[in-house]
Amino acid sequence: MTIKLHRDYGQECTRLDETKDYIEYVLHESEHNEKAIRENIKEAYANLNSLDASEGYIALLTNVKFFEMTRGNIRQLQQVKKRPYFCRIDVQPDDTDKIQPLYIGKASLFRPDTQEPVIVDWRSPIANVYYEGRIGEVSYETATGTERAELHLKRQYTIEEGNLLDYRDIDITTRDELLQESLGGSADSRLKDIVSTIQEEQNRVIRADMHRPMIVQGAAGSGKTTIALHRIAYLIYTYGDRFNPDQFMILAPHQLFLKYIADVLPELGVEAVRQTTYLDFVQENIGKKLKLTDPNLRLFHFLEGGDDLEQLRFISRFKGSATCKQLIDRYLDRVTLRLLPQDNCMLGKRVIATAEEIAKFLREDYVHLPIYKRVEKVKKILQDRLKVKKKQLQKDILDHYDERLEVALAMQNPVQRKAKVIKLMDDKEALLKKMEADAKTLVKTYMAQFSKLDLAAHYREFWQDEVLLSTAMSELELRGVQEHSLALLGKKRMELEDTAALLYLQHKLFGLLTEVKVRNLVIDEAQDYSIFQLLALKEVLGSEMFTILGDLSQGIHSYRGVESWESVLETVFPNGNCQFLVLEQSYRTTVEIMTLANRVIVHSKTPNLVLAKPVVRHGEEPKQSVFATEQELIAQVLADSERYRAEGLNSLAVIGKTMAECKRIKHWIDHFDTGLSVTVLDEKEDYSGHDLVIVPSYVVKGLEFDGVFIVNLEEEYTTEELDVKLLYVAMTRPLHRLAVYSMEGKTQLLDLI
Ligand SMILES: Nc1ncnc2c1ncn2[C@@H]1O[C@H](COP(=O)(O)OP(=O)(O)OP(=O)(O)O)[C@@H](O)[C@H]1O
Fold first, then answer.
1. What keywords are assigned to this protein (predicted)?
2. pLDDT at position 209
3. DSSP 712-730
4. Binding site residues for ATP, as ranges?
5. Alpha-carbon distance 250 to 157, whole Å?
6. Looking at the domain that runs over 607-752, which CATH code has it been given?
7. Whose CA is nearest to atom 14 of ligand 1?
8. How much is the pTM?
9. Quick check: do 207-341+450-583 and 607-752 share a fold?
10. Nearest CA to ligand 1 atom 28
11. What is the ipTM of this complex?
């Protein structure tokens, strides 16, 4: 039936028109207000000097705040005006007879006169009914408790450019239609929002309690990245009165990934949330650009094989372990011990502070501060005490000499009297001068014993501390890690594995260099984080409000990353407060592609892997072919990509195992002189605007494309654990088409699937 014949069609069209008109009206009013507020700000600036300072400042701040709010509202309404809502729910609260239709969208809009909701924000408590409720009895949580209601209708709309194209009434059984429509679409170089099709299990992650940490193990394509961003938008909406957007931060693997996700939060009306990489966060806070060895070198090393793999694995694992953190803690104790003074701080014979007192400041009273901040505190205390003591001492000297002068002045013999008085005056003068001079240098001289090393020197010292290290490891293991670390440090280099210790040491020794406001952290691709990285982040943020999302099946850096979520639960969140959720359903790719990818990941030795379950969306069978020449292989890639483009598949990627392989692929493609814009991506680039991108398998995680070619020219995926995961990651990137093209003899793992 065409929608135009539906009994409610006229009414729905009217509702949409009214909503659009009302948005236009509010926009007009807001723009008018914006102008007025702008004028107010100008005036407040002009009056800043003439008014009482605080009054003028408050007027300015208030107007700026209004201005920002109005701006924010205008931006949001501008964004939604062509699609003001995506669904309607008809609810009848338990205590009334009235059924209220509520239209849910990406903004909140009320008529101030009647308080009637025009658009209800998707993040509001009642909107939860759309995501989780079935027709009939429903309940939802609000700030004041549980509300109950009867749900009479759930209706989804397809609205484009302000026109109502379609709508359908849904419940659990028919819910998939909009989802299918959305998944059938084409990928571009940016992730998008999914507010209208959030699924129940995803909704639970988005709306989970903010105050408890949460770990989400989600299959490839289960929406981890997407829901991480939606969760931030939800939390800011729900807890906006207590938390500012700058108290939220998302950590992503690299710049390319950050560009890929950059649009989602603004699309959801959220600005000012920090989106960065772990490495950038560390560097910013230790105030140094680290000279790191390329983190992918170790990965290549594992790919290429060699005698020292076990040793390298051990080094990575050790540096990321809770044991390493414990040793650093013990080292920090030794640093504190070393600082404890032997001597009292004295001005003449007067005690400014005893050595015991200072030790107590350093080890107890200011133990909550970084070590060198404690030292600064001691300095300040000594300076303050000295000021008081100096005055007392001055007075004592004056009193002492005054007394003696009095006696001298009473002497009979004038010659002797004069000589005595002069001597006493000179002595007094000299003593006061000396006291003054001593006081001037006292604190500086005393503080000289608290010598300060910089961060790198401390880190080197840690690795040189054999007594400390030998308590934790066997002699042999100790030598390996120590030699490796000191050799690197000798070349003024470090590796990614060192950054957890550096961040932690910076925090404990000096304090972070920026004021970290972040209280709520979302970590994507968290399978690549070590326990020590997570512990260090928890410590420096002073918060446990973490949302940790990852997939162990994609743990290509498992030699340094998370081995199992249990270990994170036990070590990072040992108080048992952490929530753990599993997302099995995968939305990105077709049943055919996911089935093939699952046939790869079953060869992984990672325990307890959960296979991804694709949503039922069918597509072409993945193509697998073997070629005799590289030229033929690349010719096939180019022919297919032309066909895919003709079918409307816009984003296409060729995935090579390593950067060297990718360069070889590029070299061959250039031979064909296609006129296409083709580029090889590294972790820093943006890939919008290219016809074809070539990406190494270890860079491609997290990204997606309409069509993917996995190409094996000189390199192949073997049955080694790392190769299994790399191939799995590559295979789970396409939305619609997958082709795996290999040269003869380069199909070791592929032969098994
Ligand atoms: N509920 C949903 N409705 C529509 N699309 C969805 C939904 N959930 C996920 N998707 C889509 O599925 C794709 C995969 O999502 P996303 O990249 O967030 O998954 P992921 O779990 O982070 O994947 P990976 O671990 O493989 O990188 C995206 O295109 C996203 O828009």
1. ATP-binding, Helicase, Hydrolase, Nucleotide-binding
2. 92
3. ESS----SSHHHHHHHHHH
4. 218-225
5. 32
6. 3.40.50.300
7. 221
8. 0.88
9. yes
10. 588
11. 0.99
Choose the residue to mutate in 588, 610, 613, 705 for probing ligand 1, maximizing ligand atoms within 8 Å of C-beta.
588
From the CA of 226, give the closest atom in ligand 1: 18
Ligand 1 centre distance from Cα of residue 580 (Å): 19
- Å from CA of 187 to ligand 1 middle: 11
Buried b (16+ CB within 10 A) or exposed e, 571-596: ebbeeeebbeeebebbbbbbebbbeb
- Which candidate, 305, 119, 252, places its Cα nearest to that of 550? 252
**SS3 readout for 641-710:** HHHHHHCCCCCEEEEECCHHHHHHHHHHHHHCCCCCCEEECCCCCCCCCCCEEEEECCCCCCCCEEEEEE
Q: Nearest residue CA, atom 1 of ligand 1?
A: 198
Cα separation, 232 vs 253, in Å, equals 18
- What token pair was written down for 112? 């101030």
Are the C-beta atoms of residues 339 and 450 closer than 8 Å to each other?
A: yes
Q: How far is CA 216 from CA 209, 227, 407, 467, 604, in A?
A: 13, 10, 87, 40, 20
Ordered mean pLDDT values, 10 residues apiece, the chain (753 residues): 84 94 86 68 59 57 57 79 93 89 91 84 93 89 89 92 91 67 76 90 94 95 95 93 91 89 89 91 90 79 74 88 92 93 90 94 95 96 94 92 92 91 93 91 92 93 81 67 90 92 97 89 95 97 96 87 91 95 94 96 88 90 96 96 92 94 95 88 76 92 94 93 94 96 92 87
Q: Which residue shows structure tokens 């702008």?
A: 38
Give the model's pLDDT for residue 66: 53
CATH homologous superfamily for 207-341+450-583?
P-loop containing nucleotide triphosphate hydrolases (3.40.50.300)
Domain borders along the chain are 1-81, 88-197, 207-341+450-583, 342-447, 607-752
Q: How far is CA 277 from CA 203, 283, 503, 628, in A?
A: 26, 10, 14, 42
